[in-house]
Input
Amino acid sequence: MKISKTLAAALLLGLVAGCDAPQGQQSPSASAQQAIEQADASYQQSSAAGHAWSQTKVRLQAARAAFAAEDYDAALAEAERARALADASLAQAQAEQTAWQDRFPVARSPSK
Amino acid sequence: MLRTTLLAALLAGSLGVILAHPASAQATADPETDRRALREFYANRFPQVDLADHKDGVYAIDAGAREQWLEMEDFPPYEIAVDEGAELFAAPFANGQGYDHCFADDGAVKQNYPYFDEQRGEVITLELAINDCRSAHGEAPLPYDGQELATLAAYMAFASRGNPVAVDAPASDAARAAYAAGKRFYSTRRGQLNFACTSCHIQLVGNRLRAERLSASLGHVTHWPVYRFKWEEVGGLHKRFAECNSQVGAEPFPEQSDEYRNLEYFLSYLSNGLELNGPATRK
Output
């Protein structure tokens, strides 16, 4: 009985401690910060490729503003939107590597 | 999660390719073949329009808009800019010399711009040449998005009216690469709306986008700078390039950036032979 009580107490302590900071889970501010950094890195890549989209920057700025206001849920959501836009613009840059070559008219008549 | 990781890896890998290797087709662009192809395309698309009339831009293909434009030409809103530009052109620099030391024929030289400067390895537009002239005479360069440069260019466009566009064919590998970069920019989809210049000016040319008729690229360079009612001032071609990029959700490049100068070089070569008729008025 004594052992069971001790064990129960230990389990409870562990559970409480686990609820407070589950292993591997980030705080909301750290999650938002990481999402902003990832979105920014993707945005910088699209910018370097000459394919940045204007809304990506807008969403990134909104994420940073929300982060500064300590609204980490909003910051995370905006950063994820920015990341999605930046990734899509990178996919566009990739597709356009060759796709652009077929868009200009081709002469049908022989040269004079 | 796996799909996201895979997508990210693919993107990262392809980006490396993007940054490291320009498309091989750039090297194979043939300007004269492109010019012939574009003229042929518009001749088929607008059989009722004489190719030379494309100098008037959208007013060559829209009778109603043309009528309004001709009436606006009775009291053109760019007139003040031309007068101010003429005064600026004639005003001496601090060293006593002036723009006429850099530009022959009282500035009626727009037909020769842009050109590829082999020594500098870059495209020189009229706006860049104006600032080069100022720097050579100890004057500070003018901001590319400012009105002083726009009015000077408006005067020089007016002085050059009637001269046919006469841009030299790219003669070196470097010049051909600049031309090819312009062609690639023109043909590449950008922005969240996924539009290339070709989307509006080749694929959909002549159709309406809301209330506006989409213009042909033949003649796109003949009438700049332009007084746009939307801007309420005179502005240059690169300002319009930036606006086009913004309209499709792409981040614009700076005026006189390499990207826009190469694009202007490409478009100007295609319009060789068309009469200059700038400055002009647009909505």
Notes: Residues 28-96 of chain A form one domain. The helical segments of chain A are 2-20, 28-48, 54-68, 72-99. Chain A touches chain B at residues 45, 47-55, 57, 85, 87-101, 103-109, 111 (CB under 8 Å).
